[in-house]
Design goal:
- The structure is a single chain.
- The chain is about 30% helix and about 25% strand.
- It is elongated and about 105 Å long.
- The termini are far apart.
- Strand 4 and strand 5 form a beta hairpin.
- It has two domains: about 35 residues; about 200 residues, no CATH class.
- Helix 3 packs antiparallel against helix 5.
- It has five helices and eleven strands, in the order H-H-E-E-E-H-H-E-E-H-E-E-E-E-E-E.
- By secondary structure, it is of the alpha+beta class.
Length: about 250
């Protein structure tokens, strides 16, 4: 009788321990579920376009100064039809002038896991007629930043073989310019926008240029790049990006 009592007591004790262990396991799992929080920042896209968030202050404010591109204001340019002959009559002035013209490159920054670019304005001296000076600044764009500018992390995202047709036309303040197909090859949305901004901001430094109509190999374009970034009939002056000056 005594042996049977001891056996029953042992079984009851083991059942009791089992219930305690199961309870502790459930409590432990519940605690971990409540305390775990996913890293929302890691789940976000690692790259955001410059217009999607506030730009931080520069760490080296003595070497650059930042300003809103005040002269580039939106214009109400009408839809402009494509030109079949870019060497026809145009409004290019033959008057020769020497001037300092703005050339736009880029500088990239990173905040946390977000990357973004800023336009950087540098200056080059050009001389000649309006058409000649436009071609000279395009040549400077193709050359890219000089060694001093490269030391300050300034770069260009235009293709190395950036080419354009020597035939261009200025009509009613709109510059018609044809670029080589490499301008849009393998370019995602952000890269395509940066390339267009480098080109358009540089050309808008000429007061005679009120709008820009871009062609690729002589064909009118409504979208560009591998992501088919939509572009307007005429690129107009804009102030959506800030510009830094070296």
């Amino acid at each position: 009788m005594s042996q049977e009592f001891q056996t029953n007591s042992s079984k009851s004790f083991l059942y009791y321990l089992s219930f305690i262990l199961i309870g502790l396991i459930l409590i432990d799992k519940s605690f971990h579920r409540k305390s775990y929080k996913p890293n929302v920042q890691r789940l976000q896209s690692p790259i955001s376009h410059v217009t999607n968030f506030e730009l931080p202050e520069e760490t080296n404010s003595s070497s650059v100064r930042e300003t809103q591109d005040s002269e580039n204001t939106p214009s109400d340019l009408p839809i402009v039809k494509a030109e079949n002959n870019l060497s026809g009559l145009s409004e290019f002035s033959d008057k020769e002038t020497e001037s300092l013209q703005g050339i736009y490159f880029l500088k990239f920054y990173q905040t946390g896991n977000k990357n973004y670019s800023k336009l950087v304005k540098v200056q080059r001296k050009v001389k000649g007629s309006l058409k000649k000076r436009i071609k000279l600044v395009l040549k400077e764009l193709r050359k890219g930043p000089n060694l001093d500018e490269q030391d300050k992390s300034v770069l260009s995202v235009l293709p190395q073989d950036f080419q354009y047709s020597k035939k261009m036309k200025l009509a009613d303040g709109v510059l018609h310019i044809s670029l080589h197909s490499s301008f849009q090859e393998n370019a995602g949305k952000d890269l395509m926008q940066d390339r267009l901004d480098q080109l358009s901001h540089t050309l808008f430094e000429f007061k005679e240029v009120k709008g820009i109509k871009v062609y690729i190999d002589g064909k009118e374009m409504h979208s560009m790049g591998k992501d088919n970034l939509k572009i307007p009939s005429v690129l107009a002056r804009s102030n959506f990006r800030k510009v830094i000056f070296l």
